Amino acid sequence: MVLGISKDSVKSHAKFRDKQNLPYPLLSDEEKNVLKLYGVLKPKKMFGKEVFGTERSTFIINRGGILVKEYRGVKVKGHVDEILAYIKDNVE
User: Fold this and answer.
1) Name one GO cellular component term (predicted).
2) Are both 36 and 69 inside the same structural domain?
3) What is the pLDDT of residue 11?
4) What does the alpha-carbon distance between residue 3 and residue 23 come to, in Å, rounded to a whole number?
5) CB–CB of 41/57 below 8 Å?
6) Which end of the chain is more exposed for a tag (fewer CB within 10 A), N or C?
7) Total of domains in the chain
8) Looking at beta carbons, which pairs linking 39-42 to residues 24 or more positions away fall under 8 Å?
9) CB atoms inside a 10 Å sphere around CB 76
10) Which stretch of DSSP H or E encloses residue 86?
11) In terms of domains, do 22 and 64 share one?
12) Single pTM value for the model
């Protein structure tokens, strides 16, 4: 199962999912609870101020709920192929 999660609103996710024609759910974490648990809120500079942004990451969790692989600070280009190769080679 694939899920996307960010601090964006449910309404924002619905618009993005529809525009991109995504076949999987996008979850809203406006309170940033899950983002904090996974340690993906990172400080960055924006217009000279320090703010917290979300580090683009991928987590592979097995059927038993165990985190088996994580990718931090990923770039979009080529990442899907990398994930699919990992799953093909490592997941039953």
Assistant:
1) cytoplasm
2) no
3) 96
4) 10
5) no
6) C
7) 2
8) 40/72
9) 7
10) helix 79-90
11) no
12) 0.81
